[in-house]
Amino acid sequence: MDPSLCANNCGFFGSAVNKNLCSKCYNEYLKAEAITKSIQGLTLNKASPNLSDSCVTASASAGAFLKKKNRCKYCNKKVGLTGFECRCGDVFCGRHRYPEEHACKIDYKELGRQVLIKQNPMIDGDKLQWRV
């Protein structure tokens, strides 16, 4: 059985499992297929009169989500990769990472109670129906 070359003629050997593509070409094929599926999944809103305005606002909001906070909210120290993200949504340095240090408004005791209630449901049904 003679191995076949890649269907994209890149010079490597392909596999029948990978549609006669080498591993690199097959990965590129899968990425391109995923992109086309995601594009087909999008629906355009034909009721909007000006598409360029909606595209500009969409790109502006996407840019806001991509920006990573890299300074401590309390002392404005640059934290980079060593920053600690609190449940309140802010990033803090090692000194201000604890809720007591940055005056966090999140009630951790109540959050803990809610988690315990969710994980351990109380059984209220009485097993003996004849008992009053």
Detailed description of the structure:
With 132 residues, this protein is mainly α. The protein folds into two domains: 1-42, Single alpha-helices involved in coiled-coils or other helix-helix interfaces, CATH 1.20.5.4770; 67-119, Zf-an1 domain. Helices cover 36% and strands 3% of the residues. It contains three helices and two strands; from the N terminus they run ααββα. It has helices at 23-41, 51-66, 108-119; strands at residues 84-85, 91-92. The protein has a two-stranded antiparallel sheet. The longest helix is centred in the first third of the chain and has 19 residues, at 23-41.
Task: Note the main attributes of this structure.
Zinc finger A20 and AN1 domain stress-associated protein, flat, AN1_A20_ZnFinger, DNA binding, two-stranded antiparallel sheet, single chain, 2 domains, mainly alpha, zinc-finger, 132 residues, Zf-an1 domain, Single alpha-helices involved in coiled-coils or other helix-helix interfaces
List the topology elements:
Blueprint (H helix, E strand, L loop, with lengths): L22 H19 L9 H16 L17 E2 L5 E2 L15 H12 L13
Antiparallel strand pairs: 1-2
Keywords: Metal-binding, Zinc, Zinc-finger
Pfam families: zf-A20, zf-AN1
GO molecular function, one term: zinc ion binding
Largest sheet properties? 2 strands, antiparallel
What's the number of helices?
Answer: 3
Shape: flat
| Total count of strands | 2
What share of residues is helical? Answer: 25-40%
Radius of gyration: 28 Å
> CATH fold name of the largest domain, please?
Zf-an1 domain
Give the CA-CA distance, first to last residue. Answer: 82 Å
SS strand fraction: under 5%
Q: What CATH architecture of the largest domain would you give?
A: Irregular
> Under the CATH scheme, which class of the largest domain?
Few Secondary Structures
- Quote the average pLDDT: 79
Question: Which runs of at least 5 residues are low in confidence (pLDDT < 50)?
Answer: none
Structural class: mainly alpha
| Helix-strand topology string | HHEEH
The CATH homologous superfamily of the largest domain: AN1-like Zinc finger
**Order of strands, widest sheet:** 1-2
Instruction: Write down the domain tally.
Output: 2
